[in-house]
């Protein structure tokens, strides 16, 4: 029987926030979208919960799937930890103690927003790497009990805890200048695609009149391949659905 259960977006955010947006293992700041939730005592441990409580002097409230066992982890540490058997090491006791102290903070936030459907949707969407829009930013801001929320324009969007503040960085699309530049670039790409498409059609028409063993046919065939490659490169750069704030801007 697997003891793992899916962690809700609110719970994930609560763990992230309670640890100031840093990885529990390496203490490096992480983006919310990259935040994994690790179990200090792995869910795969076969011991019954009663034994674990006894062995680690845990509180009666301790659950494998609970804030007293959950920590935020960056991708690297999350993968590394999978291969290390931490159980029965004295470090686990210290880890669990640290987590127990932080747990009430996370738990309180999660309980307050447990039934907030709007917030879970926004957070879940963010975990997919999508950028929040203005309304969604407000929803996230309202999750944190003591606001200081900083909103900045940056290279790409991300949410981070920094010096006790929740910093929401928005992509250049949030500024008028950023949107103007975006439109200009998009128009240029569209024009290039149109020109290449008509060139492609012309090449095909010319080739139809030629013998496929002739040199001119082979020259045109090479040109056709080049045009095709350029179109393949350009087409994904064209944003579909107009100017949205929800483009995938990771990396
Ligand atoms: Zn880490």
Description:
This protein has about 250 residues and is mostly helical. Among the domains are: about 10-115, Orthogonal Bundle (DNA Binding (I), subunit A), CATH 1.10.30; about 175-235. It contains 8 helices and 5 strands, in the order H-E-H-E-H-H-H-H-E-E-E-H-H. It has helices spanning about 10-20, 50-55, 75-80, 90-115, 115-125, 135-140, 175-210, 215-235; strands at about 35-40, 70-75, 150-155, 160, 165-170. The chain has a 3-stranded mixed β-sheet, with no helix packed on it. A two-stranded antiparallel sheet has the order 1-2. A hairpin with a 2-residue loop joins strand 4 (about 160) and strand 5 (about 165-170). It starts with 8 loop residues before the first helix and ends in a 17-residue tail after the last helix. The model is unreliable at about 240-250 (pLDDT under 50). The site of zinc ion (ZN) has 8 residues, from helix 3.
Task: Give a quick precis of the structure.
The protein is mostly helical and 251 residues long. Helix content is 48%, strand content 10%. It starts with 8 loop residues before the first helix and ends in a 17-residue tail after the last helix.
User: What pattern of helices and strands is seen along the backbone?
Assistant: HEHEHHHHEEEHH
CATH A-level architecture of the domain at 9-113: Orthogonal Bundle
Report the oligomer. Answer: single chain
Please give the radius of gyration in angstroms.
26 Å
The CATH topology assignment of the domain at 9-113 is DNA Binding (I), subunit A
- Molecules bound to protein: zinc ion
Top CATH class of the domain at 9-113: Mainly Alpha
Number of strands: 5
Query: What is the helix content?
Result: 40-55%
Q: For the largest beta sheet, what order do the strands appear in spatially?
A: 3-5-4
Structural class of the secondary structure composition? mainly alpha
- Total count of helical runs of at least 4 residues: 8
